[in-house]
Amino acid sequence: MKKLFDSAVSRRSFLGGAAAVSALGLAACGGNDTPSGGEGGGEGGETTSGGGTITAGSAYAPSEYNPTKTSSAFCLGSNWHVLEGLYGTDPHDYSTFPELATGDPEQVDETTFTVTLREGAAFSNGNAVTTADVVESFDRTKADATYSAFLSPIDSLEATDDTTITVKTAIANFSLLKERLALVRVFPAGTSDEELSNQPVGSGPWMYSTITDDAVDLVPNPNYNGSYPAEDAGLHYDILVDATARMTAQQQGQTLVMESVTADAIPTIESAGCKVDKVQGFGTRFIMFNTAKAPWDNVTARQAVMYALNTDLMVENIFAGLAATASSYIPKDFPNYQEAATVYTYDQEKAKTLLDEAGVTPGDLKIRCTDNTQASAMATQAQQDLAALGFNATIAEETSAATYAAIDGGTDDFDILIAPGDPSCWGADPDLLLNWWYGDNVWQQTRTGWGTSEEFAQIRELMNAALGQSGDEQQATWKQVYDLIADNCVLYPLIHVQTATASWDDASKNPLGTAIEGFEGIGTTGMSFIGCKTVTA
C-alpha cells in the first residue's frame, strides 16, 4: 500500500478523491496479493496464509462503540472492520474508496448528488442493507455533537428508491463529499443506542463476537460480499493499556501487532525480530491561551510565549525524536501542507522584545495540563522556559475530564493549557482537522474565549469558502487560514507526534511461528487489519 508519509499523496489526488487510488482501495495491503495457502511472509521454506487468528495488543481501553457518537481510540479502530459507510477512508494515506457505494457520487446539480448501493450488501445478522438504513445512520450521526460540525455541509440524505440515495448539500459543488460521508457508519435502522453501544452490527468483513473490558473478539461476517473479505478465523484484541504488558505479549509472540511502542522500547522490540513502523501523524500536543484574561487577549504577548518555548528540546528529550515541531497547523508530510507565514522557533531574546512591545511585566502564570505523560513533561519545560522571561509559573495537572470541566465551568483562572489531541482518526482533509478546534464550537466560544473576535470570523468565512472550491484555489484559501491561525496562535500545535507500531512480519522470527502479512502502522490511534492475514511458518 502506498503510505502517505513515505510518499505524500498529491494535492489533486487528495482533493479529488483520486479515482485511481479509490480503484486500488486497500488491495495492496497484502492480503489479496498472495492466494490463501500460498507462499508469503518468512524468509524461506513453505508457509501457509490465512485461517488463523490475528492478535493485537491495544494501548487504549474501549469506552463507546456506538458509531453515531464514538470518539474512543479503540472503538473507532475496531469499528473500521465491522461497520461500513457509503465510503471508507484508508488510514494509511487518507484516500477514500467505495464501501457500500458502487462508485463516486454522481452530481445532478450544484447541491444534489446520487449514490448507488452495492448489490447484495448484507449485515452480519442476515438482513439486507437498505437505503433506509443509510438515511437513518446519517441522521443519527449528524445529530450527535461529536459529528455535527463535520457533517454540517450535508443537508440531508434521502432514499430515492431501493438502491439509490440522494444527497443534498448546503455547499455548492461540495468537494469533500466522500470524505464526509465516510464518517457515517451504517447500521440496521431501528437499532437502539444501547444496542449500538453494547455490540454494533454492521456489513463489514468482520463482526463482533465477544466484548469484555479485557479482550475483544471478532469473527468473519458470513454475509459480507465486498472487496476485502476476512481471510482468518478470528481477530483478537487484548486490551493492554500498560506499555510493559504490551511489550511482553509482543516479545513472546502472543500478539502479532503491538500498538504505541514507546521510544525507549523500539531497539528492544526490533532486536527481537519485529518490524516497527514509525509514522508521522497529525496527533498534536498543543498550547491554548485564555484570551478572556489579560495579557493573553494581546496577540503580541501570545507570540512572545510561542518564541519562548524550546520545542526542539521537547522533541529530543520528551519524544526521543519521534515527533516534529510545528511549522504550520498541518504536519509537513501531510497532503495540503504549506508552511505558515509565521513559524515559531526558540528565541528568548525575541520573546523578551515582544513582551516589551506588548507592555507586559512578567508575573504569576498558571499552566494547566492534562495527565498525559508527554503533555505533563512539556508543561514542566514550559515552566522553565517562561521562568527565563521572569514568569513565576505554576502547573495544575489533572485528568482530561477534570481539566476541561474546570475550564468549561468558566471560573478557572488559568493562563495557558498544554494538552494532546488528534482528530485525524476521522480523516485528514484540512477542513476536518481545522473544524475540530476552529469550528463554531466549545473550543473557541468557551475555552479560548476568542469566538467573538474579528479574526475568528475571518477564519470561519475562509473555511466555508474553501468547501466549495477545489484544487489550487482551495489550497490557496486554506493557506490563508493556516497563516491566520499561526499569526494569532490562540490554539496551536507545538508538536506533531509520530506513532510507532510493532508487528511480526516474518513467521520464522516469531517464537510461536506466526506473522501477519501486509500490515502497516498508521499515524493515528487504532490498527487497520483490512486486507491483511496471518502467515504460519
UniProtKB/TrEMBL annotation:
Source species, domain of life: Bacteria
Main localization of the protein described in the UniProt heading: other
Span of domain Solute-binding protein family: 98-441
Keywords per UniProt: Signal, Transport
InterPro entries per the UniProt record, alphabetical: Peptide/Ni-bd (IPR030678), SBP_5 (IPR039424), SBP_5_dom (IPR000914), TAT_signal (IPR006311)
Gene3D superfamilies cross-referenced by the UniProt entry: Dipeptide-binding Protein, Domain 3, Periplasmic binding protein-like II
Biased composition (Gly residues): 37-54
SUPFAM superfamilies linked to this entry: Periplasmic binding protein-like II
Compartments, record wording: Cell envelope
Region (Disordered) residue spans: 34-55
Family: Belongs to the bacterial solute-binding protein 5 family.
Name of this protein: ABC transporter substrate-binding protein
Source organism phylogeny: Bacteria, Bacillati, Actinomycetota, Coriobacteriia, Coriobacteriales
